[in-house]
Amino acid sequence: MNTSSMTFTHNSTGNGYICYDVKGAGSINKVSLETDIKKGDTFNIHYGNGDTNTPFRKDLATWSGVNGGEGDVTQDLIDSITSSDLYIGTMANSDAFFDKVVEKFNKCECEEPNPTKESMDLKNVVAVDLDHGDHIRHSGRWLALLTECDCCNKPLTMSQGFAFNCPAGIKHVKEDANKRTRTNIKFNSIITSINQL
Questions:
Q1: What is the mean pLDDT of residues 113-125?
Q2: What is d(CA 105, CA 114) in angstroms, rounded to the nearest whole number?
Q3: DSSP sequence for 148-186
Q4: How do strand 42-47 and strand 155-162 relate by DSSP bridges?
Q5: What is the spatial distance between Cα 87 and Cα 150, in angstroms, rounded to a whole number?
Q6: Distance (Å, whole) CA 118 – CA 103
Q7: Which of 96, 159, 167, 195 could form a disulfide with 172 if both were Cys (CB 3.0 to 4.6 A apart)?
Q8: Helix H segments across the chain?
C-alpha cells in the first residue's frame, strides 16, 4: 500500500489529547491520541465523509510508535494507521481474490476466450469477495462467475465488479452482490474469502 501521499496536520491539543487531520489514508480523516501514548496503547481513528454511504464514525487502532503523541510522529502515525483493521479493510484490493479464484476454477487457455451465450448466466456465482465486509472499499469488490468457453468448451472464470462505495456493513455488501447478479446468492455454499483459496 502506497503511503507516500499520507499527510498529517496538527489540529488541536488539550485535556491530554492531541489530534491530527489525516489525508491520503482512504476514508480516515482524523486521529486523536493521548499525548503520552505508549507502544501498544489504543487511539481513535475517525473516518467517513458524512454522506449516506460513509457516515462519520470512529474506530480504535493500536499505537505501534515509540514516540509519544507530540514531536515528529509522522512515521509512527503511518505505521499505526496502516496496521489498523480499518485501514487494511478499506484499502484492500479485490484483484488478489479474483486471481486466486481464476487459479482454482479456470481451465480455459485460449488466447481470446469467448464465453458461450448459454453460460453467461449471472446465477453461476462461485465466489464473492466478502473479506473485511464491515469496511467500505473505494476500489470495489469482485464476484466470480463460472462459465464455459465457446472455443475450447472448458470452464472459464469471468468477473463482475460490485460494491463501489456501497454503505459499510456485510449486509450491504451482500445486498449489492445480489443486486448485480439479479439473484439470491447462497453465500454459505460459495467462496467468500481469500483464506478459502
A1: 76
A2: 16
A3: EBTTT--EEEEEEEE-SSPPSSHHHHHHHHHHHHTS---
A4: unpaired
A5: 42
A6: 23
A7: 167
A8: 74-82, 85-91, 95-105, 170-181
Q: For residue 186, what is its C-alpha cell?
A: 447462497
Residue 194 grid cell: 481469500
- Nearest by Cα to 25 from 9, 47, 42: 47
Element (H, E) at 21: strand 17-25
Are 135 and 168 spatial neighbours (Cβ–Cβ below 8 Å)?
Answer: yes
What's the pTM?
0.75
C-alpha cell at 8: 498529517
Output phi, psi for 88, to 5 deg.
-60, -45
Q: Could you give the count of Cα atoms lying within 13 Å of 185 in the half-sphere of its Cβ?
A: 28
**137 within 8 A of 90, measured Cβ to Cβ:** yes
- For residue 106, the SS3 value is coil
Alpha-carbon distance values, 189 to 82, 115, 125, 129, 184 (Å): 32, 24, 10, 13, 12
Residues 184, 178 contacting (CB under 8 angstroms): yes
Rounded to whole angstroms, the Cα distance separating 96 from 108 reads 19
Mean pLDDT of the chain: 88
Query: Residue 109 carries which side chain, given as an amino acid letter?
Result: E
DSSP per position, 4-67: TT-EEEEEEEETTEEEEEEEEETTEEEEEEETT--TT-EEEEEE--SSSSS--EEEEEE---SS
